[in-house]
């Protein structure tokens, strides 16, 4: 809870405030729904893909020996993950993780896009660390949380760096499905 609230929420809020200030003062490109409705709605679909792309590469960087020992190992203390472990990170990791929001500094967007992105990154991290695979509503699978996917990362460390919105782990050979065959492949 200390790292999630003390550093995580503080930095997420700082990125949000800086970005809103940049938007309000005309330092970054902005759009409105009326000016460009196609781009406005397309960007809402693209933010999760950008976030997944950014997360994969930042996460791979954090597993470099130097950064892992000094920074990312704090997050990996959570082997049995739970919601508080989602943002339980070193301040440098928060800085890198939330830098995904800097896309709004160069790509024309609207404050609604920023708010969507902030919710995707903040509470989204808790969702992937819930300890549950899916959210069931009336006994129907309603939302894939991907916890088992990420739980395997916390267990084996060298797999499943990304998330399920973008299959970079599958494409780049770092996907682990929990099977004995995948375990043998990663051990070799």
Structure explained in plain terms:
- The chain is mainly α and 188 residues long.
- It has one domain.
- It is built from eight helices and two strands; from the N terminus they run H-H-H-H-H-E-E-H-H-H.
- A two-stranded antiparallel sheet has the order 1-2.
- Helix 1 packs antiparallel against helix 5 and helix 2 (37-62) runs parallel beside helix 5 (111-127).
- The radius of gyration is 17 Å and the shape is globular.
Describe the main β-sheet briefly: 2 strands, antiparallel
Work out the helicity level: 40-55%
Proportion of β residues?
A: under 5%
Q: Ends: how far apart? A: 36 Å
State the low-pLDDT regions, or none.
none
* Gyration radius from CA atoms, angstroms: 17 Å
| Oligomerization category of the chains in this entry | single chain
Find the structural class using helix and strand composition.
Answer: mainly alpha
- Spatial strand order of the main sheet: 1-2
Number of helices: 8
- The 3D shape can be described as globular
Number of strands: 2
Provide the residue-averaged pLDDT. Answer: 85
What is the number of independent domains? Answer: 1
Secondary-structure element pattern, one letter each = HHHHHEEHHH
Could you outline the blueprint of secondary structure elements for this entry?
Elements: H1 2-24, H2 37-62, H3 65-70, H4 91-97, H5 111-127, E1 134-137, E2 140-144, H6 147-156, H7 168-172, H8 180-187
Antiparallel strand pairs: 1-2
